[in-house]
């Protein structure tokens, strides 16, 4: 293999392919170590089939990444070292050029340096650095200034299987619209877990089930400041293809959900009776029959 690149494009392609192969190696190792668990805990039959196919894909990707590993990292380390070593020289040359241009001022030197056009081209380097610093300063000031006055009202999150989602704070008396193509499993409202009625097949969730089924798009307006988190039905195919969650502030679309809907389904309480009460009741009944 050659030690140097013939063009910048070749270097960019090499590093992109190398970085992708190393990420694939990491993914393949992680997937193969957990393949049995992934297949056994798949949510659906389709998920089990995809998980099995991905096991063979992971083996192929892992072998490819392992083969590229020594060539890629040797070049990365070598070129990084060459760049670090040459940085002081590059900086010194740039300062030297700027110094020479700046000290070559004077009308009498225009003709000596090839006329005004050539002199102006040399000066462009100084102007370029000055304009670059001014532009960076303006952009930085703009972002810092806007950061203080900007308030986010729309969130779009792409997440993968078993990846934690952030908690949202809903303001009082403001409608929020929630949308996702993935089915909602439930929500956590102010640290209280509420599982939708369609989730009763999962053991241990009976105490959290609420008589509510959340559609793909719904909106809610709370009367107090509320912290809310979302839970979804997830399959292992989502470890390859991401799921999407969208939240809009001050927007009411889709099915309207009342805040009071987030309350646990209370079982019907029957009056408790003791053995002593049953005996007394039985005795009274017998006395009535005697009469």
Question: What key attributes describe this structure?
Answer:
6 helices, five-stranded mixed sheet, 50% helix, alpha+beta, flat, 10 strands, disordered C terminus, 291 residues
Structure explained in plain terms:
The strands form two sheets. This protein has a five-stranded mixed beta sheet with strand order 1-9-3-7-10, with no helix packed on it. Strands 2-8-4-5-6 form a five-stranded mixed beta sheet, with no helix packed on it. By secondary structure, it is α+β, with helices and mostly antiparallel strands. Helix content is about 50%, strand content about 15%. Strand 4 and strand 5 form a beta hairpin.
Q: Main sheet, how many strands, which sense, barrel?
A: 5 strands, mixed
Ends apart, CA distance between termini: 112 Å
Determine the mean pLDDT: 77
H and E string:
HHHHHEEEEEEEEEEH
Number of helices: 6
- Work out the helicity level: 40-55%
Strands of the largest sheet, in order across it? 1-9-3-7-10
What is this entry, summarized?
The protein has helices spanning 8-33, 35-40, 45-103, 109-112, 116-149, 275-290; strands spanning 154-159, 168-170, 176-179, 184-189, 192-196, 209-210, 217-220, 226-232, 243-249, 255-257. The protein has 291 residues and is an alpha+beta fold.
